[in-house]
Design a protein that fits this description.
Strand order of the largest sheet: 5-4-1-6-7
Strand content: 5-15%
Low-confidence stretches: none
Distance between the termini: 10 Å
CATH class of the largest domain: Alpha Beta
Oligomer: single chain
CATH architecture of the largest domain: 3-Layer(aba) Sandwich
CATH superfamily of the largest domain: HAD superfamily/HAD-like
Order of helices and strands: EEHHHHHEHEHEHHEHEH
Shape: elongated
Largest sheet: 5 strands, parallel
Mean pLDDT: 96
Number of domains: 2
Structural class: alpha/beta
Helix content: 40-55%
Length: 197
């Protein structure tokens, strides 16, 4: 029995930032692409994910952007959060994982997204622990994120932890710290990998 470190985005839920960008863009599809670059995959978003920008400051930055339609901040927050759909197969997969393993969630995410996910997708509440970038200040591409996990459970060897993540750079970083990893593509392959361990 090991500890599964389960990513959220594109593992538990599918993520589509373009839904947000199209919903708030003042200038249609072209404007949506610019917003995607500015707020969804930018250095600013990484800082937000690391807890270095407060939620109200991030929303305020977007609200002041002339390329974003004028709207109440509460509506902007709703658009930012409502970009997720439950991944096919996750409910059954989570039940199977918990039969043989301890499940922790480990995610690079911001507090607005995580609050929405926890409130709207009950499957996340089946995890026993949460390692979130905005709380710890490290992304999974940084070895410090995994060193903190290992330090928190010193009774276990690194090889007893298994990261399931859809990003190769995160898996490579975890592997470099001695953890086992599975680069996620779908739940049938992930469960096969765990059965073969």
């Amino acid at each position: 029995m090991g500890i599964i470190l389960l990513d959220i985005g594109n593992v538990i839920v599918d993520v589509d930032f373009h839904v947000f960008c199209r919903a708030v863009s003042r200038d249609g599809e072209g404007g949506a692409e610019a917003l995607f670059s500015r707020y969804c995959v930018s250095e600013q978003k990484l800082l937000f994910d690391k807890g270095l920008i407060a939620p109200l400051d991030y929303l305020g930055m977007m609200a002041r952007d002339p390329e974003i339609r004028s709207m109440p901040v509460i509506d902007l927050k709703g658009a930012w959060q409502d970009i997720f759909t439950l991944k096919e197969g996750i409910s059954g997969a989570m039940s199977r994982l918990r039969e043989k393993h301890t499940v922790w969630i480990m995610s690079d995410t911001d507090p607005l997204h995580f609050a929405f996910l926890l409130n709207n997708f009950p499957v996340l509440k089946l995890a026993e622990r949460y390692w979130l970038s905005f709380e710890h200040g490290y992304l999974k591409r940084e070895p410090e994120s995994f060193r903190e996990v290992l330090a928190a459970d010193q009774g276990r060897e690194a090889g007893e932890f298994i990261l399931i993540d859809d990003r190769e750079e995160n898996c490579l970083c975890a592997g470099g710290c001695g953890l086992r990893t599975h680069l996620f593509s779908d739940w049938s392959r992930a469960l096969e990998y765990l059965e073969d361990l």
